[in-house]
Write a structure and sequence with these properties.
Elements: E1 2-4, E2 7-9, H1 11-18, H2 23-44, H3 54-62, H4 65-72, H5 80-93, H6 98-110, H7 129-137, H8 139-153, H9 167-188, H10 191-215, H11 224-227, E3 230-232, H12 235-240, H13 247-252, H14 261-268, E4 275-277, H15 279-289
Parallel strand pairs: 3-4
Antiparallel strand pairs: 1-2
Helix pairs in contact: 2-3, 3-10, 4-5, 8-9
Length: 291
C-alpha cells in the first residue's frame, strides 16, 4: 500500500493515477487552441456582432495558463519536449516565460502558504474591497509581468528562487519573447489589439478570481490538504481550467496528471480541509469578509 497524507492506495491504483500519456493533453490542447483560432478568424473578419466574441476569446486565451501550468510540471504530456513546446507557446501568449515561471512555481509548491518562503505571497493578497477590485482587474499583475520580462531580458533578475546557473536561460528566453512580440506586431499590426490584447484583458478578472480561490484564507500550515482549496464546479469550468479546480489534490501530489485529478479526488475527498461549492459563492464570501 502507498500512503499519502493518510490515503491508502494499492500500488496498481497509484501507478494508474500517476501514469503519463500524450493523448489527453494533445486532444485538450487541440480543442482549446482550435476554438481560439475559430473565434480569432471570426473577429478578424468582423462577423455580425463580433465584439460579443471578445469575451469567450478572452476566456480561452487567458486560461492557456492552465496548460502552461500543467506543462511546467511536465505532467501534461508523457514526452518532455511536448511539455516544453506547449509551455513556451502558452507562456508567450501570456507574457509569462516558462523557465522563470517553473522555478517560481516549484518554490511555491515547496513552501505553499508559508508567509516567509512562498513567492506567491510576495505580492500581498487583497485586504480590503478596494484592493480586491484592483486585483481582479489583473492590471497590476500584467504590469508586474512586463517589468519582470524586461528585467530578465537585461540580465537583472534578482529572484532568490532563480539559481545562478539558470540566469542565462532566463535571460535568453526573455530576449526571444520580446523579439517575437516585435515580429508579431510587424506582421499583424493593429489586428493584435482585437485578436489578443483586448480579449486577454477582458479575460484577466476571471483568471484572477480562479487563482485567488486556490489559497486565499486557507490555513498557513504545511498540510497540503489544508493550505489549498478545492472548488467544486461544473464541467465547463473544469474543461477550461484543465481540472485545476481540484487544487488541494494537485498540491498533495503534483505527479498526478490533470486528466486523472477527478479520479484522485475520489480518494482524497474525505481528507480535504477546505472545500468550496462554486467560485461565485466563494467570492461573495471573500468580498463580504473584506473591510
Amino acid at each position: 500500500m502507498t500512503t499519502l497524507g493518510g490515503l491508502n492506495l494499492d500500488k496498481t491504483r497509484w501507478r494508474s493515477l500517476v501514469a503519463r500519456a500524450n493523448g489527453p493533453a494533445l486532444g485538450r490542447l487541440c480543442l482549446h487552441g482550435g476554438l481560439i483560432a475559430i473565434l480569432g478568424a471570426m473577429i478578424v473578419n468582423k462577423v455580425a456582432m463580433w465584439p460579443v466574441l471578445l469575451l469567450p476569446q478572452g476566456l480561452l486565451l487567458i486560461f492557456l495558463f492552465a496548460p502552461l501550468h500543467e506543462c511546467i510540471h511536465r505532467t501534461a504530456f508523457k514526452t518532455r519536449w511536448c511539455n516544453d513546446l506547449a509551455a513556451h507557446v502558452c507562456g508567450w501568449l501570456l507574457l509569462l516565460p516558462p523557465t522563470w515561471f517553473r522555478l517560481f512555481h516549484l518554490r511555491h509548491h515547496r513552501f505553499t502558504n508559508n508567509p516567509e518562503r512562498d513567492p506567491e505571497l510576495a505580492a500581498a493578497k487583497p485586504v480590503n474591497r478596494r484592493d480586491y477590485l484592483i486585483h481582479m482587474t489583473g492590471l497590476p499583475v500584467w504590469w508586474s509581468q512586463i517589468r519582470l520580462l524586461l528585467a530578465n531580458a537585461f540580465g537583472r533578475n534578482s529572484d532568490g528562487f532563480v539559481p545562478r546557473k539558470a540566469h542565462r536561460r532566463v535571460t535568453v528566453e526573455a530576449v526571444w519573447f520580446i523579439a517575437l512580440y516585435a515580429m508579431a506586431y510587424k506582421l499583424f499590426g493593429e489586428q493584435l489589439l482585437w485578436l489578443w490584447l483586448v480579449p486577454i484583458l477582458i479575460g484577466q478578472p476571471f483568471l484572477r478570481g480562479f487563482l485567488l480561490a486556490e489559497h486565499m484564507d486557507c490555513p498557513k500550515v504545511p498540510n497540503m490538504f489544508a493550505n489549498s482549496r478545492t472548488t467544486l464546479t461544473n464541467a465547463a469550468v473544469r474543461f477550461l481550467t484543465w481540472n485545476m479546480s481540484y487544487h488541494a489534490e494537485h498540491h498533495a501530489q503534483p505527479a498526478v496528471p490533470f486528466h486523472r485529478l477527478p479520479d484522485f479526488h475520489v480518494h482524497a475527498r474525505p481528507h480535504l480541509k477546505v472545500v468550496q461549492n462554486g467560485y461565485l459563492q466563494l467570492h461573495r464570501k471573500i468580498f463580504a469578509g473584506l473591510s
